[in-house]
Amino acid sequence: MVDKIEGHNVRDPHDLHGKVEVQLDQAAEELTRRLDGNVDYQVARTAVSAAYRRLADQARVHNFLPILAARAAFQSLTHAA
């Protein structure tokens, strides 16, 4: 949802958070497929969320964090196995 304040487009931060959660869900689903079902979806989702939080703490730009979090989670899960 985009509102206008003093002529500027302003996005609802709750809407942005919801979109990130959807992206993290999709990343976890893809990660589960890539790992041939050897990792439960919830384990993948937890790994993706943890990676996202770690990256978000230091990131200046958040646009690609869900993708980067998925890659980091994939690496951590494949090295742990």
From TrEMBL:
Residues 24-78 form the Protein-tyrosine-phosphatase-like N-terminal domain. It comes from the Bacteria. InterPro entries: Phosphatase-like_N. This is Protein-tyrosine-phosphatase-like N-terminal domain-containing protein. It comes from Saccharothrix violaceirubra.
